[in-house]
Amino acid sequence: MSPKRRLATRAAAFLRYLSESMIRGRTIWIVAEIALFLCGVTLLAIYGGSRLYSRFQAKSAIAKFEALNEAYSRTISSLAVVSALGLTTLRRSFAVR
After folding, report:
1. Residues 83 and 90: beta-carbon distance below 8 Å
2. Which residues of 13-45 are buried (b: 16+ CB within 10 A; e: fewer)?
3. From CA 93, how far away is CA 70, in angstroms rounded?
4. 87: helix, coil or strand?
5. What is the pTM of this model?
């Protein structure tokens, strides 16, 4: 039996159970069970979504940090090259008077 057919069979069985329960007078309990089940599934979906969102945000924050770190290290290395070449214009502009 295919998964779709199995799901349809289970859904039909659940609906049959609901209709039989309503006939027996347990309507309030069934409605309460369904409401609580839907609330639980909704809360799980919200929790899972927030976990995924925080995971993606953390990855993007790490990528931004690495880009900033790389830019900083390139700036430092270019300053080292300027000072190694003896270009004093940069050194004079940073000199303390």
Report:
1. yes
2. eeeeebeeeeeeeeeeebeeeeeeeeeeeeeee
3. 25
4. coil
5. 0.44
Asked if 50 and 57 touch (Cβ cutoff 8 Å), the reply is: no
Dump pLDDT digits (tens) for 1-37.
677 778 788 888 888 887 776 666 667 788 888 899 9
Domain residues for the domain of 62 are: 3-93
Give residue 47's pLDDT: 95
Cα separations in angstroms, 69 against 2, 61, 62, 65, 81 = 53, 12, 10, 6, 18
Structural domains counted in the chain: 1
Closest CA to 30 of 14, 11, 10: 14
The values of phi and psi at residue 69, to 5°, are -65, -40
